[in-house]
Amino acid sequence: MTLSALADPTRRAILARLATGEASVSELAEPFDMSLVAVSKHLKVLEKAGLISKGREAQWRPCRLEAKPLRQVDDWLESYRQFWNDNLDRLEAYATLLQQGGTDDRSK
């Protein structure tokens, strides 16, 4: 659910804004050319995914970023980062070998 919530660029922009601090729905809606209802729908998706929470302070209902689901995604992605870094390092070594006119021993 976290990854599908993060798939939308509007929701990612909302999370980026919340990374700077709490904000109301109307504050979050300001940069977007959409209704408050549409922004509220995005917020519901983010809240259902556990990425934000809403507080209650008198008439103000501030939204807050919840970092735990993002940490879980980051932990999951770390193994893939290492995989791609290792593959890119091997590709770079092979490209360097080819540029130097060498051959790869695996082709024999």
Order the strands across the largest sheet as they lie in space: 1-2
Average pLDDT figure: 91
Distinct helical segment count? 5
Task: Please give the radius of gyration in angstroms.
Answer: 22 Å
CATH class of the largest domain: Mainly Alpha
Distance between the termini: 48 Å
Look up the CATH topology of the largest domain.
Arc Repressor Mutant, subunit A
Percent in helix: 55-70%
Counting helices, strands and paired strands, the structural category is: mainly alpha
How many beta-strand elements?
Answer: 2
Instruction: Give the SSE order as H and E letters.
Output: HHHHEEH
Looking at CATH, the homologous superfamily of the largest domain is Winged helix-like DNA-binding domain superfamily/Winged helix DNA-binding domain
Count of discrete structural domains: 2
- CATH architecture verdict of the largest domain: Orthogonal Bundle
Largest sheet: 2 strands, antiparallel
Portion in beta strands: 5-15%
- Assembly state here? single chain
Low-confidence stretches: none
